[in-house]
């Protein structure tokens, strides 16, 4: 395709041809038309908005995926609260799924934003809260993917108050690189009101220090400090320099993404049989709905009808198993409030 070289001092209605397109100077800009339709420009989309009647082939959208799973954050819309609806106050406590209070703690609980028809988190005190995005780890070492050096990312949030601080960091298990800055200076843009009293805030940055990612690295962390009285939702972290509309994934899908890291089952599960494999012990097995990130730490409440001694509950990434002794053929063991934690 030939390089366009428009005349430097055109007069109105002057024409210039290149690549099968005839351009006409209208006094402000060159407008193009093909030889098949000289009255309508069918090769270009208006920047202020346009309607297409055919297919559009593009390599990327805002330098990120074209559709679906643009948002690297899980539960950004705050739909899933497996640990309860709050209030949560203590530092290092998980609140809504995947969101953890940081060192300063806070006072948060589930709320909603009526104007957007979505759930939200309300902060009745200054709140420090983070989410760690898991990165690739195949056992022989971690990779920063998709957060590679110099890649541009945008974090956006809808709230009634501008966050006091938004920051990024690499965090790891051994804390040898915990808190290592993960981005250049963050550029803030107020995108305006999206519902009465609520604005959308955009924070754009480039990733740095990815070369220090190692087998200890847990992930890429977004951290927020929010002033007292803040209600927020629709948090999104995506590739590119522009915040796109919030990606509203189906709630069942969002729950399954959360359950990779935490699973809770309040229902009573009964073991009413004696396992010959375990020499008369009562055994209850149950698969997790999704494979968990690592072998979880697991707790539960137990009850018996008849005599018996609870021997413990063990878990793999795929399932958990509770065992007890039994004294009578008519007795049974039950467990409930099972919580399995495999958070980063």
In words, what does this structure look like?
- The protein is built from one helix and 22 strands.
- With 344 residues, the protein is mainly beta.
- The chain folds into three domains: 1-57, no CATH class; 86-258, Jelly Rolls; 262-341.
- The strands form five sheets. The chain has a seven-stranded antiparallel sheet with strand order 4-6-7-15-9-13-12, with no helix packed on it. The chain has a five-stranded antiparallel sheet with strand order 5-8-14-10-11, with no helix packed on it. Strands 16, 17, 19 and 22 form a four-stranded antiparallel sheet that branches.
- The longest helix has 8 residues, at 251-258.
- It is elongated and about 100 Å long.
- Mean pLDDT is 86; it is low at 36-40.
Sequence of secondary-structure elements: EEEEEEEEEEEEEEEHEEEEEEE
Count up the domains: 3
Distance between the termini: 50 Å
**CATH class division of the largest domain:** Mainly Beta
Low-confidence stretches: 36-40
Number of helices in the DSSP assignment: 1
Instruction: Tell me the total number of β-strands.
Output: 22
